[in-house]
Amino acid sequence: MSYFDLIDGMLRTGACALSAGFVTIQRTWLEERQQADGGFVGRSGSSDIYYTDFALRALSLIAPDSEAFTAAAPFLTARRSPPADVIGAFSELSCEETLSRRGVTARIDRGPLSEIVARQALASGGFGASGTGELSAYATFIGMLCRQMLGEPDLSKQAAQAVRRLRCEDGGFSELESQSQAQTNATAAAVAVLVMAGDLQRSEAEEVAGFLRRAQAPDGGLRAHPSAPEGDLLSTYTGLLTLWTLGATDVIDLAAIGRFLRLVTRAAGGFAATPSDYGADVEYTY
């Protein structure tokens, strides 16, 4: 089982407990974000493969019968320039896989995506940040997912050793090797790489759980980093997912996370990034 399948299975189990009224509101809001070309839009601009991926994954969880899947196929297969980095490559691969699960065939050219993965890989076994080439926890996580989805050789052991260079004294992981402050999302990415490699040590898991426990803000959400003024939905999701993976969700206040989610829920549908963010977008809604 790939790590992508592990995440999908966990979310699908939870989605079964959502109320019908909630699902209807979110389904309608998401489907309204789909454009005439079949892609989905963020808060502004035109259809974007990044947001299309999040929208399709969200609809796959709550509305597997949506017509949005069939409508999205032309957007995915339309001629366009290859993605700039592994994040774009993952978005295309993820869209293709999600559509396939819904019985929609939308073949993409995997050759250029494989080349992007190879180009962004580092000799250390990790992946470099787009534009700088510096070892990145997030790029390494996404690059490893791409390799799994492309059916390429398993180099997870090397990637695990690379991300350990990002470990900080407080038990978390930094996003870049030049940084000294641990971040919630980078920690989640690094743990995912270690889990994919089957190489997460008990001491590392315990220190990560402690770091994430301390990341919980008074508003109930998890902060992106220790000095962040409030919790944000992305960090809350990645942190909670990581604690679930570690079997350590008991270290944080889950009821407080529930209250935080209500703060970022928008009545007309969609979710915002933080309580002080008055907008909503597809990524946070996923």
Uncertain segments of ≥5 residues (pLDDT<50)?
Answer: none
Q: Beta-sheet strand percentage?
A: under 5%
Order of helices and strands: HHHHHHEEHHHHHHH
What's the helix count? 13
- How far do the termini sit from each other? 22 Å
- In the sheet with the most strands, the strands line up as 1-2
Largest sheet: 2 strands, antiparallel
Radius of gyration: 18 Å
Shape: globular
Output mean pLDDT.
Answer: 95
Helix content: 40-55%
Extended strand count: 2
User: Class by helix and strand content?
Assistant: mainly alpha
Polypeptide structure, described:
With 286 residues, this protein is mainly α. The chain contains 13 helices and 2 strands, in the order ααααααββααααααα. A two-stranded antiparallel sheet has the order 1-2.
List the helices and strands and how they pair.
Blueprint: H1 3-15, H2 20-31, H3 49-62, H4 68-77, H5 86-101, H6 110-120, E1 127-128, E2 135-136, H7 137-150, H8 156-163, H9 184-196, H10 202-214, H11 233-246, H12 254-264, H13 282-285
What labels would you give this structure?
single chain, 286 residues, mainly alpha, two-stranded antiparallel sheet, 1% strand
Give a summary of the structure in a few sentences.
The chain is mainly alpha-helical and 286 residues long.
